[in-house]
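Below sits our specimen:

——
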Amino acid sequence: MALDTDYVCDLLLSVGMITDEQAEEARQKASDGSVDVLGALEMLGHATEDEALDNVQSAISEYLAAVRESFVGSETREVDVAV
């Protein structure tokens, strides 16, 4: 599965795991396609893939919790869509 480099870097920046400079360095390393951004961060010694994935998961979970909370008291419905 391909990772969206900017999205991953933005999430890791938002949780304070990496700096702007580290994100740019990882983007450049990943730009040639030989490694994804998580691999680039690990190769550069900025974060392990497991640490990065844990932080991405945490950031997404926090976002989804905030979205759910914004719908409290609203009329909503849930549907399943087969893909």
